[in-house]
Write a structure and sequence with these properties.
The active site is at residues 248, 270. This is Uroporphyrinogen-III C-methyltransferase. With 473 residues, the chain is of the alpha/beta class. It has four domains: 14-113, Rossmann fold (3-Layer(aba) Sandwich); 151-208, no CATH class; 217-331, Cobalt-precorrin-4 Transmethylase, domain 1, CATH 3.40.1010.10; 334-472, Methyltransferase, Cobalt-precorrin-4 Transmethylase, Domain 2. The chain has helices spanning 22-33, 47-54, 83-95, 133-146, 151-160, 162-168, 172-184, 186-192, 196-208, 233-241, 253-256, 276-291, 311-320, 333-340, 359-364, 389-398, 428-434, 452-455, 466-472; strands at 14-18, 37-42, 59-62, 73-78, 99-102, 115-119, 122-126, 217-222, 244-247, 264-267, 296-301, 324-328, 351-358, 377-383, 406-411, 419-424, 441-445, 460-463. Helix 7 packs parallel to helix 8 (186-192) and helix 8 (186-192) packs antiparallel against helix 9. It is globular. The two termini are 41 Å apart. 35% of the residues are buried.
Length: 473
């Protein structure tokens, strides 16, 4: 973020507005509505500002700007058409460590005044950091149509009963379920119909009802390969109801940022060289520990939990211990990385089937990974393969793949650092080393991989050739 979003309490605090025109008038009106002690300074004022001063809503300071006007101010806004005056206000405020906004000049401003959707006490602010105010206004207009005006009274009612709700619903999960009922049930409906007394009565009745202890549960969520835009709506809802989020190393920071801000986040990712079985046992025990407290636990796994994610083992453990669970599928790496590399996994002219395997199993020659010889018309996708490329290439060639079979190695698929290395199978290891391909990376082998240079649309494309690399060296 270029700016830190902040809502300020200005009631009774001095704010200086320099300028006496229409823009200054709008700023003064907004500040006065927030309860600020507004001082407006200028050589001349609009008729409306004069009226506001007559009614005591603002104070007027007549004359050219003087730094002394800033004495006692918490904020300053420069809204004149004279750039020299605006710069003087910004400079004087900076010297006093007072935040200042210069209208339509982001570089001189130390804070920005956002576009606002007002459903007080619910207030939504939108800012582009001064770079695109029209865009911010467009977003505000869209939100205005989405958010009913009854949200303000609903927020007020929730605030009035907040202490009682905490008393009657001591666990986080039970409180969250109560608030879900409050936002979606008869209270909200009554407020939309302007029946405030009925809304409050419904809330009181619900609070008085006995609530049984809420059992904990685990939601197994596939986080996809990294791009937060590929998260499903159901996964997003799960992240926002989680009390605890257990995440592995492949769950991107952008996806984690979409979870509840107050959720407990625990990294349980496996690292190379450790005892993975012991780590998996700790994951099982951690899920059980938190679920038994009544918490909603989201087990967040990169890609899809049921594709090389040990999700089945985790569900078996939960069922054996009587813990309720749900599963939210995620987009697995083979689908997403291929799509972001412009590679169709199947194609009427080039591939009629696709096989998913881990490179670890494939390099060892496990029967599960090599149930049939690979040949033309088949796409193979290998997960977790960077460290296994030499053995993997050998095994592929032994199983019938030709040396000139196209491959694509997708590094950091769907993320901003995505690179796609394309070449022929016999050059796979040398090209990957030459271009320093790192995990996480997915290997695609088959005729469809040759389509990447033509259909590539995201990230960086590298068309590998060992002869060219030798010439460059």
């Amino acid at each position: 973020m270029n700016l830190f979003p902040l809502f300020t309490q200005l009631r009774g605090r001095r704010v200086l507005v320099v300028g006496g025109g229409i823009v200054a008038q709008r700023k003064a009106q907004s500040l006065a509505a927030a309860g600020a002690d507004v001082l407006v300074g200028a050589t001349a004022f609009t008729e409306e500002l004069e009226k506001m001063a007559a009614h005591g809503a603002v104070q007027l300071q007549r004359g050219p700007f003087e730094p002394a006007w800033l004495d006692g101010a918490w904020l300053a806004i420069a809204a004149t058409q004279d750039q020299a005056v605006n710069r003087a206000v910004a400079g004087a405020a900076e010297a006093r460590r007072i935040f200042a906004n210069v209208v339509d000049d982001a570089e001189l401003s130390s804070f920005q005044v956002p576009s606002v959707v007002d459903r007080s006490p619910l207030v939504i602010a939108i800012s582009s950091g001064g770079t695109a105010p029209v865009l911010a206004r467009r977003v505000r207009e869209r939100l205005e149509t989405l958010l009913d005006h009854s949200l303000g009274p609903l927020a007020t009612l929730a605030g009035k009963y907040r202490a009682a709700i905490r008393r009657q619903r001591p666990s986080l999960r039970s409180r969250r379920e109560f608030y879900d009922w409050l936002l979606d049930g008869p209270v909200a409906a009554a407020l939309r119909s302007r029946h405030a007394a009925q809304a409050e009565h419904e809330l009181q009745r619900q609070l008085e009802r006995h609530q049984p202890a809420v059992p904990g549960k685990v939601i197994l969520v596939g986080a996809g390969p990294g791009d937060p835009g590929l998260l499903t709506l159901k996964a997003l809802r799960a992240l926002n109801q989680a009390d605890v989020i257990l995440h592995d190393r492949l769950a991107s920071e952008e996806v984690l940022a979409l979870g509840r801000r107050d959720a407990l986040r625990i990294s349980v990712g496996k690292t190379p060289g450790e005892d993975h079985e012991a780590t998996q046992r700790r994951i099982h025990e951690t899920m059980l520990e938190h679920a038994r407290t009544g918490a909603c636990v989201v087990r967040l796994k990169g890609g899809d939990a049921f594709v090389f994610g040990r999700g089945g083992e985790e569900l078996e453990f939960l069922r054996a211990h009587g813990v309720a669970y749900e599963v939210v599928p995620g987009i697995t790496a083979a689908l997403a990385c291929a799509a972001y590399a412009g590679i169709p996994l199947t194609h009427r002219d080039h591939a009629h089937s696709v096989t998913l395997a881990t490179a670890h199993a494939s390099a060892r020659g496990d029967a599960a990974a090599w149930h049939a010889p690979a040949g033309r018309g088949q796409t193979q996708a290998f997960y977790m393969g960077v460290s296994q490329l030499p053995g993997l290439r050998t095994r592929l060639l032994q199983q019938g793949r030709k040396a000139d079979t196209p491959f694509a190695l997708v590094e950091n698929g769907t993320r901003s650092q995505q690179r796609v290395l394309c070449g022929k199978l016999d050059e796979l290891v040398e090209l990957a080393q030459a271009h320093a391909i790192q995990a996480p990376a997915l290997l695609l082998v088959g005729e469809v991989a040759a389509m990447a240079p033509r259909l590539h649309w995201y990230g960086t494309l590298i068309e590998g050739n060992t002869a060219a690399l030798a010439r460059a060296a």
